[in-house]
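Lab notebook, bench 4. Continuing the backlog of folding jobs that were queued last week. Each job is logged with the same field layout so the records can be merged later without manual cleanup. Today's entry covers EamA domain-containing protein, a 174-residue chain. Filled in by technician R.K.

JOB TYPE: sequence-to-structure
TARGET: EamA domain-containing protein
LENGTH: 174
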Amino acid sequence: MQSIQMSVTGRLMSGKSGKLNSFQMTFYTGPIAFATLLPFAFITEFNIFVESVTNKPIASLGFLLGSCCVAVVYNVVLFQSVGTLSSVGTAILGNVKIVLLLFLSSLILGELTGWSANQFLGCVLTFASAGAYSYIKATAPKPAPAPAPEPAPAPSQQPRLEGPGHGYIKQEGV
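JOB STATUS: finished
OUTPUT FIELD FOLLOWS
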């Protein structure tokens, strides 16, 4: 689902009908996401939310506002990366991030000894694939830039049009 979102976002941010920036994308997608997720949140978390608001109203409000701020920042960063890297580059970056977080948390917590060969192979494949993608993108031939239009001649170099209909009246004897 997120890959569809990134592809649509990439199209909208680089569209020919007008480019949207990351803040505009967040502004337009926020209400749609809210309306889509509200029924599920109401069904699954309404009782927990009411209990939390009645027991700790300030903490609940702080948690809700903090979560909203984090969501806005996340969306802006996501849309910026899609606009900069493309949807494929952003997906690869997300995969590398997840694998790196899993690897570092296992390394810090001393759980690497419990990893299987498949987990190590998955890490190696993720990093090798990201490196290969970066190499291919960096070495791909760039399209030739469009030729620049010739500048208009300076007003003193432009020919003077004489005669009727050209706005210049030739005076006799001058």
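OBSERVATION: Residues 1-85 form one domain.
SIGNED: R.K.
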